[in-house]
Design goal:
494 residues, two-stranded antiparallel sheet, globular
Length: 494
């Protein structure tokens, strides 16, 4: 009934073909999952990603299992495919944990605050909108979170823009364009880790390949905002003195702190293993924290001064659990917060549950049946890319969550890209170019609702000016249509 063949992306994984399963049976779990997720997000709103969505993924797997039982697929075979799926994400899960550790030490060492401190100083009323893009990009790369960037510096920039007489929609669009560029390109971002995990790729390879479409898109975005800014009449000055003073009073800010991110960048360029690069970045961040921010490290543990014990405990706390650094500016307190390795457990939970759903779908032969149908409809490489973009947009609209817009298409399309001889970076890049960034353009999506509420600007007002967000899927389709930098599957990449 079921023949198996190896997937070159995952050495131990097999793709199950079930000739007894028709396309409508294969799609039953998908329709059930989308319907359940849509209702779940409607009920729980922003809190859905906290756990209920993960359970819904398991329920989707249960529906797939029922379909499998009706087609004489054994429980043992389905469980074996789930085990292989989870095993294939081992590297991604370890990287996620290390990303959380790195974020913790980079906060207490002052590296992230230093990036924010110097970034805010490039504000100029004449090029305010372009500066918003750059500042939010820097901060989002440093923190790995578009949500945190918008909720802190984004709010400050909205206030500054309003004082200058600039449209709130324009400022919000510039803030979100920069924030989502940084979110996409940061190894600290959960979606940036999630996309290659779903596609079967590798984190830094994904970021390098994604830069081919992302950098041209942000350059076009930045150019448009500079042109708009040069033709606007502004009044007043951009006052960031209070924020800069608070950062300066809390941290020892200096240029030496940038040696740590430069070392990590050098390791990435030299193609060091991701876990090694992140581990070295984490350890260096801890050393710099002890040297430059001894009072902060001691304060984390409640100690009055830095000793060997308080230093050890403070760094380990920053690496493993949530760390908050209080300032005299309430707007900065949320920004200067890191969740450590524990903060990544929610994303890991999501990945594991997605692998359960995908594994059962694989075990009953549904993935093979669906990908064959997709390949039959997508006659060209461009058609496959377009189908991926369309699926991501559809899930952002129906399931109302960017994580699910990455997880579900990622698992469903990975086999189709493999059959076309395309490297997994093509899929992971397309997932981010269409799934991550467009979520903020949909009012009822968790991202759209969040950013609209935080910035105090409706989605309708900022949608047109969120240039990076709507231009990204267009760019990826242009690259696919023209055949630009479409990476093929080779024996080396396999």
């Amino acid at each position: 009934m079921a023949a198996k063949k190896k997937n070159p992306f995952r050495q131990d994984e097999h793709i199950v073909e079930n000739i007894e399963l028709n396309i409508w049976e294969a799609l039953i779990p998908v329709f059930a999952l989308v319907g359940m997720l849509a209702y779940n997000v409607y009920v729980f709103g922003d809190d859905a990603i906290g756990g209920s969505n993960q359970f819904i993924l398991l329920m989707g797997g249960a529906v797939a299992a029922i379909v499998g039982f009706f087609n004489k697929v054994s429980y043992k075979q389905m469980l074996a495919e789930v085990a292989e799926n989870v095993k294939s994400t081992t590297g991604a899960l370890l990287i996620l944990l290390m990303v959380g550790a790195l974020a913790g030490t980079w906060l207490v060492s002052g590296i992230i605050p230093a990036m924010i401190y110097y970034g805010l100083q490039i504000l100029n009323p004449t090029i305010f909108l372009g500066a918003c893009v750059v500042i939010c990009a820097i901060i989002s790369i440093a923190t790995g979170s578009s949500w945190t960037t918008a909720a802190t510096v984004g709010i400050a920039l909205i206030g500054i823009g309003d004082a200058l007489g600039i449209s709130l929609g324009m400022t919000a669009g510039a803030v979100l364009s920069g924030a989502y560029f940084g979110d996409k390109m940061s190894p600290l971002s959960d979606t940036t880790n999630l996309a290659p995990a779903m596609a079967g790729g590798e984190l830094f390879g994904h970021i390098r390949y994604m830069s081919l479409t992302t950098i041209p898109t942000i350059l076009v975005t930045l150019t448009v905002f500079i042109i708009i800014g040069l033709n606007l009449d502004t009044s007043g000055e951009a006052d960031t003195a209070a924020i800069l003073s608070s950062i300066d009073a809390t941290f020892n800010i200096n240029g030496w702190l940038f040696l740590v991110p430069l070392a990590v960048i050098l390791l990435i360029v030299k193609k060091a293993p991701p876990l090694l690069a992140l581990l070295i970045g984490t350890l260096l961040g801890g050393v710099f924290a002890l040297f430059f921010q001894p009072d902060i490290v001691a304060g984390i543990t409640g100690a009055d001064s830095l000793t060997f014990e308080s230093g050890y405990k403070g760094i380990l706390n920053a690496i493993t659990i949530k760390t908050n650094i209080a300032t005299d500016n309430p707007a900065l307190n949320d920004l200067f917060s890191a969740k450590g390795m524990a903060g990544m457990l929610g994303t890991i939970w999501l990945i594991v549950c997605a692998m359960v759903f995908g594994g059962i779908m694989d075990g009953i032969g549904a993935l093979s049946r669906i990908t064959k149908s997709l390949l039959a409809m997508a006659k060209t490489t461009f058609g496959l890319f377009a189908s991926t973009v369309g699926s991501c947009l559809a899930l952002n609209i129906t399931a109302s969550d960017q994580y699910l817009a990455i997880v579900v298409p990622g698992k469903m399309f990975s086999k189709a890209y493999e059959d076309r001889g395309l490297a997994p970076e093509n899929l992971s890049r397309t997932l981010e170019d269409s799934g991550t960034v467009t979520s903020v353009l949909i009012p009822w999506n968790t991202c759209g609702a969040y950013h609209s509420g935080v910035l105090g600007v409706s989605v309708a007002d900022y949608m047109f000016y969120a240039i990076f967000n709507w231009l990204s899927p267009i760019t990826t389709l242009v690259f696919a249509g023209l055949g630009i930098k479409i990476k093929q599957l080779t024996s080396k990449s396999a």
